[in-house]
From TrEMBL:
Keywords: Heme, Iron, Metal-binding. GO terms for molecular function: electron transfer activity; heme binding; metal ion binding. Residues 1-24 are annotated as: Disordered. InterPro entries: AAA_16, Cyt_c-like_dom, P-loop_NTPase. The keyword Secreted does not apply. It comes from the Bacteria. It holds the Pfam family AAA_16. It comes from Cryptosporangium aurantiacum. PANTHER family: ATPASE DOMAIN-CONTAINING PROTEIN, DNA-BINDING PROTEIN-RELATED. This is AAA ATPase domain-containing protein. Residues 168-319 form the Cytochrome c domain.
Length: 398
C-alpha cells in the first residue's frame, strides 16, 4: 500500500479522517447552539473520559460548529502551573475578534475590550517592574470599575456577564472551550462555576464547554455543590465495533482500498475501541499491507510495530515523567489491576502490596494525580488515566 496515501492520523488532538461514533454529541451541541440563539435556557457542557478517547478532537469539532454559526469562540488549554486570567483573556480576545469581523462598527466591542484589558492587567503582581508587566495585546486603554477588583470570582462573573451582553448586542453567542479542565486551580474552578451559574440564571448567550479526565465532575462538585445541576455532563468512551469499523473503512475507501472482515475484527481486538489506538494500528497496518483488501495476516504483522510505537510515544513519554517512587506506586497499581480484571484499585491495597503505611504513599499518589497519570475514581480508589497503561507497566523491567 502506498504510504503517501495512508489516511490514518494518530496524533494528540489531531482530527481523524473520519470522526466516527460522535454523531450524538455533535447533534446535542447543535441543539444547544440553536436554543441559546433563541434565548432559551441551556447548560454549559463538560466532556469527560480517559486519554486517547478523542476529547480534544471532539472539543475542536464542537468549536467548529459554533464558528459555523458565526459565534465568537476562544479556546484554552489549562495548565496546573498557570492561573486562569491570562489564557482566558487571550481566549475572549480571540472570540471578540471573530465577532468584530462581522460587526466592525459596534462601539460596544471597544468598550468590552477595555474591560477585558483591565481584567487581564490584574494578573500582574503589584509592585513589579514596568518592563516585567504582562501586556495582553489589546489596543486601547483599560477601563476601570469592572472586572478589575482582583478577586477572580467577582471579576469573572462581571467579565463573562459583559461578554454575554456584547453577544446579545451583536445578535449571536460566545463559546469558551477549555481543554484539560481538571488542571485549573481550585479558585479558578470555583470562579468559573460561579460565573456559569450567574449566566444560566439570565439565559445569557455565553456557554462554556470543558473537557477533562474522569474525575473532573468531582472537582467541580467539590468547588460548588450546585455544579452537579449547572453542567450537562457527557462521558466520552471507546467506540463500539460499528463505529471503529467506520473509522477504518471510510478513509480507506476514499483511497480505493478496504479491509476484509477478519482484519477489522483483529484491529478492533488490538485497539479495544479507543480512537487513538484505532488510528495508530490502522496507520501501521496500511503501511505493511502489500495490497487491498487488507487482511488479518497484515494486522498480525503490523501489531508489534504499532505496539512498539505506542510504547515509546503514548506510554513511554508518560512513564518517563514519573519519579522512582511514583513508578513503584504505579507498578503496584498495575499488578492489582491485573488481578482484579482491570478498573480502579484500592489505595489501601496498594499500601499493603508495597508493605507501607498509606500516609507514606500520599505524596507519590498526589503527585501522580497532578501529573495526570492517575485519578481518584472515587474515595479510597485510584485508576490510570491512560487506557492499557497497566498492561504496559507490567512489561517494564523493575
Amino acid at each position: 500500500m502506498d504510504p503517501v496515501r495512508n489516511p490514518y492520523a494518530p496524533g494528540a488532538g489531531q482530527r481523524p479522517p473520519e470522526l466516527a461514533g460522535r454523531d450524538r454529541e455533535l447533534d446535542q451541541f447543535d441543539v444547544v447552539l440553536e436554543r441559546v440563539s433563541r434565548r432559551r435556557p441551556e447548560r454549559s457542557m463538560i466532556l469527560t473520559g480517559l486519554r486517547g478517547v478523542g476529547k480534544t478532537v471532539l472539543l475542536n469539532a464542537l468549536r467548529s460548529q459554533a464558528i459555523g454559526r458565526r459565534w465568537g469562540t476562544g479556546k484554552i488549554e489549562a495548565r496546573p502551573d498557570q492561573q486562569l486570567r491570562r489564557p482566558l483573556t487571550n481566549a475572549l480576545h480571540m472570540a471578540v475578534r471573530e465577532l468584530s469581523s462581522h460587526h466592525r462598527a459596534l462601539d460596544q466591542i471597544d468598550d468590552f475590550l477595555g474591560t477585558l484589558k483591565a481584567f487581564a492587567l490584574r494578573s500582574n503582581p503589584s509592585g513589579g517592574k514596568i518592563r516585567d508587566r504582562w501586556q495582553p495585546g489589546i489596543d486601547g486603554p483599560a477601563t476601570s470599575g469592572r472586572a478589575d477588583s482582583g478577586d477572580i470570582e467577582i471579576d469573572l462573573v462581571e467579565l463573562l456577564t459583559d461578554a454575554a451582553d456584547l453577544a446579545t448586542a451583536v445578535g449571536t453567542g460566545i463559546a469558551l472551550f477549555i481543554d484539560e479542565m481538571q488542571d485549573l486551580g481550585a479558585e479558578d474552578i470555583s470562579a468559573l462555576c460561579a460565573a456559569c451559574h450567574e449566566l444560566s440564571q439570565t439565559g445569557a448567550p455565553l456557554i462554556v464547554v470543558g473537557a477533562g479526565l474522569p474525575h473532573l465532575p468531582a472537582l467541580l462538585s467539590a468547588s460548588k455543590s450546585y455544579s452537579e445541576r449547572l453542567f450537562r455532563y457527557v462521558r466520552i468512551d471507546r467506540l463500539d465495533r460499528a463505529a471503529a469499523d467506520l473509522a477504518l473503512l471510510a478513509p480507506a475507501e476514499r483511497e480505493d482500498a478496504t479491509f476484509d472482515e477478519d482484519a477489522l475484527a483483529a484491529l478492533y481486538d488490538a485497539a479495544d475501541g479507543y480512537p487513538y489506538f484505532v488510528q495508530a494500528y490502522g496507520k501501521v497496518t496500511w503501511d505493511v499491507a502489500p495490497r487491498s483488501p487488507i487482511t488479518a495476516a497484515d494486522v498480525k504483522v503490523a501489531a508489534p510495530e504499532a505496539e512498539a510505537e505506542l510504547a515509546v510515544g503514548f506510554f513511554g513519554s508518560r512513564y518517563e515523567r514519573a519519579t522512582p517512587a511514583e513508578r513503584e506506586y504505579m507498578r503496584a497499581m498495575a499488578e492489582l489491576e491485573n488481578s482484579s480484571d482491570g478498573g480502579a484499585v484500592s489505595t489501601s491495597e496498594v499500601a499493603v502490596s508495597l508493605g507501607r503505611k498509606p500516609s507514606s504513599l500520599s505524596p507519590a499518589r498526589d503527585s501522580l494525580i497532578k501529573k495526570g497519570l492517575i485519578y481518584s475514581a472515587e474515595r479510597g480508589t485510584v485508576a490510570f488515566t491512560v487506557p492499557h497503561f497497566a498492561r504496559y507497566l507490567r512489561t517494564q523491567p523493575t
